[in-house]
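Quick entry between incubations.
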Amino acid sequence: MLARMISRRVVTAGLLAGSTATFARARDEGLVALPGKQPLIKRAFRPPNYETPLAGLRTPYTSNDVFFVRYHLANIPEVDARDWRLQVGGASIARPLSLSLADLKRDYEQVTVNAINQCSGNRRGLFTPRVPGVQWGYGAMGNARWGGVRLRDILRKAGLAADAVEVSFDGADTALMPKTPDFAKSLPVGRAIDENVLVALEMNGEPLPHWNGAPARLVVPGWTATYWVKHLTEIRVEPRPFEGFWMASSYRLPTGLFPGAPFASQTTKETTPITEILVNSFVTSHVDGERLRRGRPVELRGWSWDGGSGIARVEVSLDGGRAWRDAALGEDMGRFSWRQFRVPLDTSRAGPIDVAVRAQARSGAVQPEKLVVNAPGYHHNIIQKLTLEVA
Amino acid sequence: MKRVRVALCAGWLAVVAGTGRAGEETVVLRDAPGRDLTLARCVICHSVDYIEANAPVMDRALWQKTIRKMVDRYGAPVTDEDAATILDYLTAQYSAAR
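Done. Structure below.
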């Protein structure tokens, strides 16, 4: 695991650098700050799993210092960007490469893509019946402008062979116990050479934060975040399916249960890898149970997105799902990004407003009413309902 | 065995110190028979807030499945005897029915 090039510098606990009072207050609300991050919803200390609070999800681009953090393995070295190399090889590569950060910046076209980065298990904590796993709420996701180089440009330079089946990706993070499977993922070669798939070096115009994969991570717009391997160190292209644990035995769903891009080389009769993000939306302007002042004009706002077809419409019901009306849509920031929806609320009469929101993608897919129950707790995209009280 | 335990414990301390996950030590498991063994084995790989967070979802069968996953798939160094003690402790202290 290329340990030589990684400096295991101690990450100091910047947590206590701020004022103790601020820290104590944040802690009371279940928020904890990792070094370099604002206080986030702490789901687990180690491996670190931190969720973006609602307040951090209101801007078109989610700030780097509030972007969610998700790791499977607890040994997370701080990679020294000066020593870092990205190895490119495998049986379906003609000219193996060892790339430095300078190589990537000098020899390849620099591109950007706006894309949602969403954990497969986002909202797992909202499942009924509940399922084990990190009990995420709404914030294991964010939207960012990712900057870097196209994976396909790297693969072309390395001499991608016609017999390639999958491209696999490994990062610098490792397990603590020797028998724990290292976290590595693969993509079908057809997806890997999609022009939108990047080896990203930047996030929202800044170098990637440590907790989001510095100095380079894979960006697979439209696919769930499990494929977006952080601290990327190695890319391999092989004429056969990758057999790593995190592909063969994890992040899998019953075959045919959900729509989404197929992953034929990893599909069995029983199960298939999770792939594309399903159509979804959520309200950012209000929370369930919030009170509204009577007569005061107010707007319901939120985001809608899918796995890359783009959002066609967002409908909002203010009577518990009987009548639906189209919401106004905000700026189109790209088909892999999210899109704002807005609807004015009538607060002239006292009483409850039963809000429901459903997004429809350009693919035709619509958010469902009922949860499609699945053991790992993935793809929670049911219509969000909340009750506001005018008083 | 004692030496292995000391080594694992030292390894854990090194990781906690080395990766700056301040706060993990504030998570306290409920005091009941089996707690020390559960803590000693589980913290080798992860903070035990995972246990608290999953408690509302869990029952004996799910804890059994989880412990087997940790041992069989992730290579946790837990003997069958230890696993039985941990299962009893987690079922009694961290289950939905509690």
